C-alpha cells in the first residue's frame, strides 16, 4: 500500500522565494533614488560597486548599527515606513563624528514572513534616510526566518562606509581648552532607551499606543515613532564653514557618557543643563516611572542628538550656519582644564521647567 505524501519543499518550510522577488520589484524603484554618481552597476548583483574617486590620502570609515527595541513599537503600531530613517541615522551620524562623508550603506532585514508590501515600506524608509544623508543605498539582504521569528516580527541592521582625508580626521587630539560646545536638538527619543520607555509608558503606566497625549499633541505611538534626526549633511556643511574639532553623536550612554569619548586627557567638557529644556516625552517618562535624573541622563539623549566642538572664534559662525539650516542649536558649554579627580565631561545645574 502506497501512502500519498507530499514532498518537502522550501515553500512548505515557510520560505516564499516568489514573495521575496516581488518585494524586490516593489522597492527597487524606491532604492534607486538613493544613489550617487560613484555607484557602478545596479541592484541585483552579488556585490555593490562604488568608485572611490580622487583623494590624496583617503581613510575609509565604517559603522554598523540597528534600531533596538523601537522596532517593537513600530510592529505594534503597524507603521514601518519610518524605521529605516532611524536605521540610517544611527549609522551615518556615527561616521560624521570623525569627519567622514557617508558614501554608501547596505542594509539587512530579517523577517518572519516576507510580505512584499511590508518589506517595501521598510526599504522606503531606508532609501529616504540615505537621500537625507547624501549617501547611496548600495544593496542589502532580506532573509525570511520562519519558525525562528513570528510572521509579523522583523529586525533591521545596516553598515555604512564613509571617507575622510587623513589630514582632516576629527577627534579628541584636535580639542583645545577654550573651545565652545554647541548642542543640536534631537527630534525626540531617537533610537535609544526604548526598553525603559516601553516599560514605563506601556507596562507600568498602562498607556495605549493609540492614546492621544495632550502634552505631545499627538498619540503616544506617533511620539515614540518620531524618526531620528539625521545630522550628516549639517555636520559636513559646518566642517566646511567653521573650525570644527570633533562631533559627538549622543546615543546609548547619554550626553555625558558619549562626551567623555571625545575629550582628550587633561580637558573636560563643562556643560550646563540651564541652557535647554528637554522635550515633554522625557518629562513624561521621568514622572510616570519615577525615574531618577541620573538614570534618565545615562539612558536617553534628553533633547540633544548631536554636539559639535568648535573653536571659540567660530562660535557665532557655527550657530548662524546651523540656524540657517533649520537646526535648533545653542551653546551648551565650554572646554576647560580638568580639575583633580574630575571626569572628562560634567553636566551641572538644573533644567528650566523640567
Automatic annotation (TrEMBL):
Cellular location(s): Cytoplasm
Gene Ontology CC, one term: cytosol
Primary enzyme class: ligase
Reaction catalyzed: 2-formamido-N(1)-(5-O-phospho-beta-D-ribosyl)acetamidine + ATP = 5-amino-1-(5-phospho-beta-D-ribosyl)imidazole + ADP + phosphate + H(+)
Stretches assigned to the PurM-like C-terminal domain: 176-340
Keyword ATP-binding: yes
GO biological process: 'de novo' IMP biosynthetic process; adenine biosynthetic process
This protein's pathway: Purine metabolism; IMP biosynthesis via de novo pathway; 5-amino-1-(5-phospho-D-ribosyl)imidazole from N(2)-formyl-N(1)-(5-phospho-D-ribosyl)glycinamide: step 2/2
InterPro entries membership: PurM-like_C_dom (IPR010918), PurM-like_C_sf (IPR036676), PurM-like_N (IPR016188), PurM-like_N_sf (IPR036921), PurM_cligase (IPR004733)
Lineage: superkingdom: Bacteria
Keywords of this entry: ATP-binding, Cytoplasm, Ligase, Nucleotide-binding, Purine biosynthesis
Classification via Gene3D superfamilies: PurM-like C-terminal domain, PurM-like, N-terminal domain
Entry's Gene Ontology molecular function annotations: ATP binding; phosphoribosylamine-glycine ligase activity; phosphoribosylformylglycinamidine cyclo-ligase activity
Keyword ATP-binding applies: yes
Enzyme nomenclature, EC number: 6.3.3.1
Domain PurM-like N-terminal: 59-164
Alphabetized PANTHER family for the sequence: TRIFUNCTIONAL PURINE BIOSYNTHETIC PROTEIN ADENOSINE-3, TRIFUNCTIONAL PURINE BIOSYNTHETIC PROTEIN ADENOSINE-3-RELATED
Family affiliation: Belongs to the AIR synthase family.
Protein name: Phosphoribosylformylglycinamidine cyclo-ligase
